[in-house]
Amino acid sequence: MENKETLLEIKNLVMDFRIGHSKSNLMRAVNDVSFELKKGEALAIVGESGSGKSTGARILTRIYEHSAGSITFKGKSLADYVSENGELEYARQVQMIFQDPFGSLNPVHSIHHHIARPLLIHKRASKQNVTEKVYELLELVGLSPVVETAQKFPHELSGGQRQRVAIARAIAVDPEVILADEPISMLDVSVRLGILNLMADLKDKHGIAFMYITHDIATARYFAEKTAVMYVGHMVEWGESDSVTQTPQHPYSKLLLSAVPEVGRAGRRDLSVRKGEIPLWKPSSVGCPFASRCPIATEACIQSMPEATEVKPGHYARCHHL
Ligand SMILES: Nc1ncnc2c1ncn2[C@@H]1O[C@H](COP(=O)(O)OP(=O)(O)OP(=O)(O)O)[C@@H](O)[C@H]1O
Ligand SMILES: [Mg+2]
């Protein structure tokens, strides 16, 4: 199980957004984020709204261009993929699925069309065998009877079925990585587990790596081997999911986890820790972003963000008070 191939290696990633039209008025949505994603492994990214989770995923799918830091995929920098006309190959291997499966499907096209298109674009099938391949994928994601499903349009399916179509479309091109941005949060509670188990199968049996963005710590632990906690664009704690969720060390993670009333029932609202002001982080900001809300903050926390401390083997946190 060890020595799995590292697929994505992210180092010191930074993303600044302009506030309004001024070039100099910036907010830092992602600050000094580093992590690795290995083959067949899932990393859950948890954190309150606005912590930079989706921005991170959008950078990895090249929707946004990052301001600083490096992204390496299979040993080659993203910049090199782009400069060597390898964007399409990168895009094939790093797929994304979104929160709203309805929004990501085109209402005027059949399910067949949605899955056949990437197969043809990325030359995973020919015109002759594309339908057969569409049926195989529908079967794989649990959408049978496949012939009937392929003829349907997005509005004729349930939310859970639509998310299965989005997953089939993503895996059609044999990706190495799927970036799943809150893939179950808009679905009926009754179908969420089915989608998570489908993703777990793709991970365990097909070796696909997942970055699983969620507000739900219980599902992070259920699905992902590793968990990273984000706060105001910073990764404050990360490591094995069991260790991070059961023995959190950073005061923010502790607060976040204490706000989850019952494992298995954690929802979006449960994650909001309402005490104190969430700071607007600027490129010039210093210190720990949690200092303004932290019960144990001292002068050092206002002055600087500490380096990571290994609190347990493979479990890290960035806090002056560890
Ligand atoms: N295109 C953009 N232009 C300006 N600011 C942006 C843009 N995209 C995101 N932001 C800002 O960056 C910060 C992080 O946003 P992001 O969407 O990554 O958060 P998130 O962790 O995904 O939140 P949620 O849990 O609500 O989805 C927010 O303050 C947001 O307003
Ligand atoms: Mg988001």
UniProtKB/TrEMBL annotation:
Q: Which UniProt keywords apply?
A: ATP-binding, Nucleotide-binding, Transport
Q: Where is the signal peptide?
A: none
| SUPFAM superfamilies referenced in this protein's UniProt entry, alphabetically | P-loop containing nucleoside triphosphate hydrolases
Q: Which domain of life is it from?
A: Bacteria
GO MF annotation terms: ATP binding; ATP hydrolysis activity
Q: Which Pfam families match?
A: ABC_tran, oligo_HPY
| Gene3D superfamilies in UniProt | P-loop containing nucleotide triphosphate hydrolases (3.40.50.300)
A single GO BP term for this record reads: peptide transport
Q: Does the keyword Hydrolase apply?
A: no
Q: Which InterPro entries match?
A: AAA+_ATPase, ABC_transp_ATP-bind, ABC_transporter-like_ATP-bd, ABC_transporter-like_CS, Oligopep_ABC_C, P-loop_NTPase
Which residue range or ranges hold the ABC transporter domain? 8-257
Keyword check for Ribonucleoprotein, yes or no.
Answer: no
Q: NCBIfam families per the record?
A: oligo_HPY
Q: What is this protein called?
A: Oligopeptide transport ATP-binding protein OppF
Q: Which organism is this protein's natural source?
A: Grimontia marina
Lineage of the source organism? Bacteria, Pseudomonadati, Pseudomonadota, Gammaproteobacteria, Vibrionales
Q: Give the gene symbol.
A: oppF_3
